[in-house]
Design goal:
single chain; mainly alpha; 0% strand
Length: 93
């Protein structure tokens, strides 16, 4: 099979994609943190139980979002590492 990319090119491409993905995930994480602070403020200043209950559910969704972002980061690292290793192994053979 033809090797269209050299090992350095594969690594550079993977590092570029990795940087873009982590930048986006970082922005999402910052947004979730700001959202959590805002929801906490809404929860603290709620005047009745229904508003407090709504804010509590939103905060739970926010925590679930943080867990999802962490899982995406772990899965992404696993996938990208496997892709790079396979590409480098295929390029050497």
């Amino acid at each position: 099979m033809w090797n269209l990319l050299a090992n350095e090119d594969i690594s550079a491409l993977a590092n570029t994609i990795n940087g873009i993905v982590f930048a986006l995930l970082g922005l999402i994480a910052v947004g979730v943190i700001i959202l959590a602070v805002w929801i906490g403020f809404k929860m603290a200043t709620a005047t009745d139980d229904s508003k407090r209950k709504d804010a509590k559910m939103q905060l739970i969704y926010c925590v679930v979002g943080v867990i999802a972002v962490i899982l995406i980061i772990v899965l992404w690292q696993t996938v990208i590492r496997g892709v790079i290793e396979n590409a480098l192994t295929d390029a050497q053979s």
